[in-house]
Amino acid sequence: EEEEKEEEHAEAEAEAEVAGFEPTTAVAATASEPEAVVYGSDGSALPVLVLEHFKAGAVVDFAEVQVQTTAARELALRNPTSAAVSLTMERLPASKGFQVTWDEEEDVQQAQEETEESKSRELVLPASGTRVVRIEWTPPNADHTYSVRQVLNFCDGARRFHAKILGVAVVPQKKAAKSKAVPKSLYMAPKPMKAKARVAATEAKSTAAAVTDS
Predict the structure, then answer these.
(1) CB contact at 8 A, 164 and 57
(2) Band of the pLDDT at 23, cuts 50, 70, 90?
(3) Which of 93, 103, 108, 173 has most Cβ atoms within 10 angstroms of its Cβ?
């Protein structure tokens, strides 16, 4: 009986210790930190494509661009890992008027190849680093306004990260041709009849009157 009482007493003490336990190190649920804002060359906030699983892709919106004129947008790429990442960029169709460029470490701007043979290009992001790419769009001419929706893919081995490219190519309306008024100076004024012509006309009238009277 004494042993049973001792065991019960030990269990009660253990339960009391567990109930009143306060860890020396507080463990709090950490909320995901908001992404840092990246500003472009014009001072505006850029869309950011984070190279991490379960992150939504970025959207680059050109809004309305008149055909045969060039507009540019910037896209930030962020590498949240502790190792450098080498990305392969799939080329946007040149027939749609897109071109993607970026600055290399040597500050030499390299543009994406225009040939069909070169489908991709590598872009290196340092560990915990951010790089900015520049996207230019020159909408080809057309008979009517049209919208464009393209996907720009960046691949890191088996992983693929994409940014949506949106835009509307605007065809300006043709103005109706207006009829031009003829200046008064271009009107042909009737020429005065010469003296001989007036005499002949008078004789003709007199002959016609004489024939009528006879």
Answers:
(1) yes
(2) very low
(3) 103
Task: Enumerate residues 6+ apart whose C-beta is below 8 A from 169.
Answer: 65, 66, 67, 139, 140, 142, 145, 146, 147, 148
Which of 79, 97, 113 has the alpha carbon at shortest distance from 165?
A: 97
3-state secondary structure of 32: coil
pLDDT value of position 176? 72
Cβ neighbour number for residue 101 with a 10 Å cutoff: 13
Q: Distance of CA 115 to CAs 86, 142, 185, Å? A: 22, 23, 60
pTM: 0.61
User: What's the number of CA atoms in the CB half-sphere (13 Å) around residue 42?
Assistant: 8
Mean pLDDT of 188-211: 67
Please state, in angstroms and rounded to a whole number, the distance separating the CA atoms of residues 106 and 109: 9
Q: Could you tell me if 97 and 148 are in contact, meaning their C-beta atoms sit under 8 angstroms apart?
A: no
Dist CA 123 CA 106 (whole Å): 13
pLDDT at 146: 95
Rounded alpha-carbon distances, angstroms, from residue 46 to 35, 41, 53, 112, 127: 12, 10, 20, 21, 20
